[in-house]
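Notes on consecutive records. When two proteins share a document, each keeps its own sequence and its own C-alpha cell line. Never mix them. Below: protein one.
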Amino acid sequence: MTKRNFDKEILGISKTTFAGIAIALGCCLYLFAPNNIIGAVLFSCGLLCVRIYKLTLFTGKVQFLITSKYPWYDYPLMLLGNLLGASLIAVITMTMTGDLAAPIAAAKAAQPFGDAFIKGIGCGMLMSLATYENSPLWICLLCVPAFILAGFNHCIADWYYALVAEKIGISFLATILGNIVGGAILLNPHWTNT
C-alpha cells in the first residue's frame, strides 16, 4: 500500500467515525431536550455536521448503491465506522444518558422484525433526501424531525440508544436492512438523474 492510499484510507476511517460521533451527539441533544419536538429539531445538528463537514454517514451514502459511486465493500466499512463513532460517545455519555435512553432502547428492541424493517425504510427514505448532494442544508431541519416524530428507525442512532441503555434486539438488523431499502431503492433522488 502506498503512502497516498494509506492516507486516503485513514481519512475514510476518520470520516465514518466522526459521522457516527455526530449522530450520537445528536442523540444526546435529543435526550436532554425538554420535549420531543425540540429534541427532534436539535437532533438535526448531528446531520448538519455530517453535511457541512462532508462526513461519511452510512444512511446517507446507501443512496449511491444504484450509481456504483462506491464499491459494494465500502458500505459495511462505512457502517462499522459509524457504529464505532457512536460507540465512543456511548461510552463517554453512558452514565448521563443511559436512564434517559432506556425507554427508547427498550421500545426499539421489542419491535417485531417486520415493524423495525418498515420503520427503517421510512428513515432510509428521509435520510436519502436529507443527504442528497444537491439538497439545501435546511432540508435536514425537516427530514430529521420528521423521522424522529414518526418513530422511524435510524441504525446509527438506535445503536447509540441501545449501547447506553444496554438493550439491543434483533430489530437492529431489521433497521439496517430497512435503511438500505428505503435509501437505496424506494425513495432515491438519483433515480431521477440516471
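Protein two starts on the next line and is unrelated to protein one.
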Amino acid sequence: MPDGTGNLAREHLRAFIERIERLEEEKATLMEDICEIYAEAKGTGFDPKIMRQVVRIRKIEPDQRQEQEYVLDTYLSALGMLERSDADKAGSADVAEQIAAAE
C-alpha cells in the first residue's frame, strides 16, 4: 500500500520545482528584454556600462549612497587620484581640525 504522505510530499516538491522553472524562464525572457534595451540605448549613443552603474546606484538609499561616495572620495584622495579644488582642500583641513579637537 503506497504511503499517501510520501505522494503528497512528492507532489508539493514537483509543484515547487515547476514554479521555479517557470520563473526562471520568465527571468531569462526579462534579461533578454533588458539586453535589447541596453543595445538600443547604445545605438543612440548612450554607454550601457554607465547606464548599468546608474541603475545600480539608483537602487541604493540616498544616505547609504552618500556614505559610499564619501568613502570612495576618501580612498581616491588617499591614492592621489582625486582632483580637489582649493575650497575642498580647505574644507578637509577644517574637518581634520575638528577631528583633532574632538580627540
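For the record: The helical segments are 4-43, 48-58, 62-78, 86-102.
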